[in-house]
Specification:
The protein is elongated, with a radius of gyration of 23 Å. Helices cover about 40% and strands about 20% of the residues. The protein is built from 9 helices and 13 strands. Helix 1 (about 5-15) packs across helix 4 and helix 2 crosses helix 3 (about 30-45).
Length: about 300
């Protein structure tokens, strides 16, 4: 089949931008060049890939969606082929896309990007944020090579290594009656409002934490972001639980938010670096995996271990 990388690149651009015009702008070519390349690709594969001129705009056919998924893998392999040939006896180079579960991105992406850049300056890193299901889909269809995830509900076909494992902590306003305590049991907060960080699958995990403590979780408020949950706590609207906690114990408004250890023995949810199994990582991916295992283990301290939730 006479299929070129450029044809695949244009088709992937259509899938990611939603139209031929936007794809042409991304690829810095004319619309006619994109249309011509996609038409040649359709003839080479003998299948329709793009639905043009519909009321819903430009859409991919099921065959087009499959070609996009496979095409990403082909382009990644070609990139690795070129990088491997150029880097014999030299530093690793090329582009690497990593994903990160949105609530933990501020705790992992800055160190991941800046630190890896120091050890592998020839690698250009892109990143995407999302939910755990979205990121696993991105790994499986080749939109990113590695992703920072929680070890929860991992889909078949996802391989992973644990980076660090911390027990959850209690977040309290600065003037709370228990703020001077070093550790707190959930039962001591049973009569107070609970602020849930409601980003899937956090509800599933925190419900298991309450169950392990012999309590039923009944959120009074649901926050769609980590900083909103902390800000509500700082204002005395309730307390919250968090696995990742910033060094600065202040909300966006400059109000104190104290972090205290949870005294109950509860399930943990390890942070892992995941990738699509069944194949090998690129040399860039292997280097990033090795870096991540060292960098994040070194910064994770000695977390208090507790039984993991069985699935």
């Amino acid at each position: 089949m006479n299929v070129s990388p450029r044809q695949l690149e244009y088709l992937i651009a259509i899938a990611e931008t939603g139209g031929i015009t936007a794809a042409a702008a991304r690829c810095h070519v004319s619309q006619s060049a994109v249309s011509l390349a996609v038409g040649e690709l359709e003839r080479a594969l003998d299948v329709s890939l793009v639905l043009r001129g519909s009321r819903r705009g430009t859409r991919l056919t099921p065959a087009g969606q499959q070609v996009v998924k496979d095409g990403r893998k082909v382009l990644a392999a070609l990139s690795e082929l070129g990088a491997g040939a150029r880097s014999l006896g030299q530093e690793i180079d090329g582009r690497l896309t990593i994903g990160c579960y949105a609530p933990i991105a501020p705790f992992h992406l800055p160190l991941a990007i800046a630190g890896f850049r120091e050890v592998q300056p020839g690698v250009e890193i892109d990143f995407v944020e999302g939910t755990l299901p979205d990121l696993q889909g991105a790994l499986l269809d080749g939109r990113c090579e590695l992703a920072f995830l929680y070890q929860q509900d991992l889909q078949p076909g996802i391989d992973s290594v644990v980076l660090h494992d911390r027990a959850p902590s209690v977040l309290l306003p600065g003037g709370h009656r228990l703020a001077r305590r070093r550790s707190i049991r959930l039962a001591e907060l049973a009569e107070e409002a609970f602020v849930l960080l409601d980003v899937p699958p956090s509800e599933h995990y925190f419900r298991a934490v309450f169950e392990a403590a012999g309590l039923e979780m009944a959120p009074a408020h649901r926050a769609g972001s980590f900083e909103l949950a902390r800000a509500l706590v700082a204002r005395g609207i309730g307390y919250s639980l968090a696995v990742q906690t910033p060094v600065a114990e202040l909300s966006y408004e400059g109000l104190p938010v104290v972090t205290r250890a949870l005294a109950d023995v509860v399930p943990t949810t390890p942070v892992v670096l995941g990738w699509a199994g069944g194949g090998r990582l690129t040399r860039r991916g292997e280097a990033f995996l090795a870096y991540g295992r060292t960098a994040f283990r070194a910064t994770s301290g000695s977390p208090r271990r507790a039984p993991r939730r069985s699935s």
